[in-house]
Amino acid sequence: MIEINGLTKRYGDKTAVDGLTFSVHPGRVTGFLGPNGAGKSTTMRAILGLDRPDSGGVTVNGRSYVGLPRPMREVGALLDARAVHPRRTARNHLICIAQTNGIPPARVDEVLRLVGLESVARKRAGGFSLGMGQRLGIAVALLGDPKVLLFDEPVNGLDPEGIKWIRELMRSLAAEGRTVLVSSHLMSEMAQTADHLIVIGRGKLIADIGITEFVRQGSSVLVRVDEQDKLARRLTAAGADVQPGADGALIVTGLDSREIGKVALAAGVVLTELTPQRSLEEAYMNLTRDSIEFQASAA
Ligand code: ADP
User: Fold this and answer.
1) What is the residue with the minimal CA distance to atom 17 of ligand 1?
2) Are 84 and 30 in the same domain?
3) Closest residue (by CA) to atom 26 of ligand 1?
4) Residue 228 and residue 266 in one domain
5) Atom 13, ligand 1: which residue's CA is nearest?
6) Torsion-angle region of residue 123: left (phi > 0), alpha (psi -120 to 50) or beta?
7) Which is the closest atom of ligand 1 to the Cα of 203?
8) Which of 60, 199, 236, 281 lies 20 to 30 Å from 96 when distance is taken between CA atoms?
């Protein structure tokens, strides 16, 4: 369990994280989403005690990271997979970290197996591909068999096979009852991995929501109907958001197809089309539109 309480972090006059409060629960994958520069890495660094907050705080399993007696056994993190001595072999890299953290060497071979690097364990990490480097970084995170895991943009630059592997690993770590927080700037990525979403923008919390609820809120339905104005009024009265779509269609959010069908029946209007739109990416863009740091503008 990670608890973030009123966390604020400034760099000079830049506020990277601004009064952030949320909890990350065990047994599920929590996606940490936000545009680039939103404050995701800063938050993760604060969880790990690498950045001292200006105010507020973070606890992991009820204690701050710096107060943890054996931190690697409590929290594992993949922040920057390139932080490996290039001339060291994968196995030596892990052995060094294990030694300084009082972790038995047998665990090194276990994690090498877990991440599928057994066959290259005695090769220099400097020659590793991005995907292999990422696996090595994950091996480090898993070394202490921690209950809490943080992954900062773990699939960046990976091929589809690597992405699938990481996704499955996160799901299995959560299924084992661990707390898994994974950051991404891509909704499409999180939609396939996360059970829960924390969305931030400009250092502030935008949404703390289950993925199913997000999908429900985010998906819209395209409706074609003979009596547009009448149905639009009835749908709005029923709590939906109704926008004009192309060619006289209505784009309805907040109600699903069945609910829209019922409103149409009650209104006595004839529906000629009712098509759910799967626009998760769009829903995410709408949510974070105001918090993009550097917007491309048509000057
Ligand atoms: P994200 O991980 O969501 O992309 P970051 O946490 O890296 O966002 O950054 C949040 C904001 O803080 C950005 O505007 C970034 O430029 C700024 N920032 C991050 N680290 C530093 C630093 N060490 N010095 C100055 N500014 C920083």
Assistant:
1) 16
2) yes
3) 11
4) yes
5) 37
6) beta
7) 10
8) 60
